[in-house]
């Protein structure tokens, strides 16, 4: 693809690195920004820079946050006795959009995948165990809301083994309204919401 300007070519090259964006779409976006008001482009650049450099992660659950503790963990109206374990921040957003869950979360940051070289030590599992086993912990239920893929099931099994002997803590999994091999973020909100409400308690 030939470009009339090296600056346009550079912009298209960077935009095309985004997931789902090809060179033609990147060119349309670049030309749109070029024609837009200067303030529009400046605001976009500033918002992206602030997102990249100013966003932090919650020290409790590892969700994205503007402060040391995310708005969910800091909300006293949430059910802090229930912790929903997910693999990715996108899963938090998906579950929140259902409006069916009022507990807290714990973001693992991925799933166990030996093929990709990801083991338990690469995930936020230790901090989850600390939340559950800490003296005075108010956690009474851990919901394993991990996508039912092979890696997701391996991760859920590992976590259930780690947590099953914890006195006074119930372990449950989301109902299998989510298809096997599916990803939570792509599930419709009604199905995902029902899978949370109709979660199944695991046998110890």
TrEMBL record:
Keywords in alphabetical order: DNA damage, DNA recombination, DNA repair, Metal-binding, Zinc, Zinc-finger
Classification via PROSITE patterns: RECR (PS01300), TOPRIM (PS50880)
Tree of life domain: Bacteria
Domain Toprim: 81-179
Coiled coil stretches, renumbered: none
Zn finger limits (C4-type): 58-73
Keyword Signal listed: no
Record flagged with keyword Lipid biosynthesis: no
InterPro entries: DNA_Rcmb_RecR, Hlx-hairpin-Hlx_DNA-bd_motif, Rcmb_RecR_Znf, TOPRIM_dom, TOPRIM_RecR
Function: May play a role in DNA repair. It seems to be involved in an RecBC-independent recombinational process of DNA repair. It may act with RecF and RecO.
Similarity comment text for this entry: Belongs to the RecR family.
NCBIfam families for the chain: recR
PANTHER family referenced in this protein's UniProt entry, alphabetically: RECOMBINATION PROTEIN RECR
Official protein name in the record: Recombination protein RecR
Organism annotation: Hymenobacter profundi
Gene it is expressed from: recR
